[in-house]
């Protein structure tokens, strides 16, 4: 927005300060921005549209039978996309295979990073019951995220004690695109961000969350994993503020689709104080992704009804066991015959026969090509998350 670029706004997000060794580092101003964010015109309309879209998403997910069964797939999708923004190659199928302990030599080595992201998300959501979004929670999440992976040697859970910078490969402090605040300023900057999050004010929750995301990325408090932790923060704040009752918004899908624009908006806030332009971009993303996630919920419901009917119609006396297996597949969509035996409490032979019948009904699909150690996936369900279905 043009008005955000005037002189009054130039240092609105902070200022660059020359350091003793010659490079310039950014010192973020405390939130909220001064002058305040102008929630007028387009921004006001986008905020209303985002609130409505999230309300519809929340409603559609809460109408699903046992919504918690489905939440994990939304979380997995966000994990894959957020990690891909940082350059990982692993797909949703790779993540599901790793969780099911199917190890294929062609699987990308970085799948561990995505597994960690899911673990960090689950850990954070569980902790929110007893701990607010805070520096302590952020450090715990980082520790889960970076344990034993590329960058894991860079002190998981510890705030950085050296200067970092952002820019193309091979750049130096002098040629970096952006240099975050010096390490000794990080604890104070994070503390100020935590105070802002818990301060009583009139800012709409989505605006507050949008501001907080940029501030976290600007502080860049860790040596690695800042982008992913900053995107996890959005999910935690949405659920903590009960903007969403379940973490079913994969906003990384939008950030990945508009990756260059995403980074340009972050930088425009720092350089020119363009908070309004960032918030418009952020809110458009919320609207777009909420519609996609709502459509996914509708398709889940349709798929479940279709497969429940098929099981009731074709499985006769085994229908009860078939329904139990179907419900479990929404949470864990890759199974073995032994898993099915555990779910149904039947003999191995009966479980094997049931799996065969579910394959005939095209509920399950064998995925290894082996005769032993076979694994079966709920392919139609996984497909709903693999590519975002067109809204409609």
From TrEMBL:
Gene3D superfamilies: Fido-like domain (1.10.3290.10). The active site is at 220. Keywords: ATP-binding, Nucleotide-binding. GO terms for molecular function: ATP binding. Residues 133-284 form the Fido domain. ATP binds at residues 86, 220, 224-231, 262-263. This is Fic family protein. It comes from Ramlibacter ginsenosidimutans.
């Amino acid at each position: 927005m043009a008005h955000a670029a005037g002189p009054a706004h130039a240092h609105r997000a902070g200022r660059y300060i020359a350091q003793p060794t010659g490079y310039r580092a950014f010192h973020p101003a405390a939130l909220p921005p001064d002058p305040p964010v102008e929630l007028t015109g387009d921004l006001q309309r986008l905020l209303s549209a985002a609130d409505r879209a999230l309300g519809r998403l929340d409603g559609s997910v809460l109408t699903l039978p046992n919504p918690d069964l489905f939440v994990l797939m939304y979380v997995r999708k966000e994990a894959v996309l957020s990690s891909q923004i940082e350059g990982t190659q692993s797909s949703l199928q790779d993540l599901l295979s790793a969780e099911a302990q199917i190890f294929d030599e062609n699987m990308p080595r970085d799948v561990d990073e995505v597994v960690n992201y899911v673990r960090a998300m689950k850990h954070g959501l569980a902790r929110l019951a007893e701990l607010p979004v805070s520096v302590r929670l952020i450090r715990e999440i980082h520790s889960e995220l970076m344990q034993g992976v590329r960058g894991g040697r860079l002190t998981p859970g510890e705030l950085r004690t050296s200067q970092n910078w952002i820019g193309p490969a091979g750049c130096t402090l002098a040629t970096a695109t952006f240099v975050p605040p010096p390490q000794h300023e990080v604890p104070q900057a994070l503390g100020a961000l935590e105070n802002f999050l818990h301060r009583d004010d009139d800012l709409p929750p989505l605006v507050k969350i949008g501001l907080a995301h940029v501030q976290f990325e600007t502080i860049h408090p860790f040596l690695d994993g800042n982008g992913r932790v900053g995107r996890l923060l959005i999910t935690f704040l949405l659920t903590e503020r009960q903007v969403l009752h379940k973490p079913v918004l994969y906003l990384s899908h939008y950030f990945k689709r508009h990756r260059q624009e995403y980074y340009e908006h972050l930088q425009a806030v720092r350089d020119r104080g363009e908070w309004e332009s960032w918030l418009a971009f952020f809110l458009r993303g919320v609207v777009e992704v909420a519609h996609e996630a709502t459509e996914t919920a509708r398709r889940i419901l349709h798929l479940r009804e279709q497969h429940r009917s098929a099981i009731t119609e074709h499985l006769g006396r085994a229908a009860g066991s078939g329904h139990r297996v179907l419900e479990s597949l929404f949470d864990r969509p890759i199974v073995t015959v032994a898993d099915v035996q555990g779910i149904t409490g039947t003999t191995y032979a009966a479980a094997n026969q049931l799996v065969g019948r579910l394959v005939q009904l095209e509920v399950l699909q064998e995925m290894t090509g082996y005769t032993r150690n076979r694994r079966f996936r709920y392919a139609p369900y996984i497909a709903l998350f693999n590519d975002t279905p067109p809204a409609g």
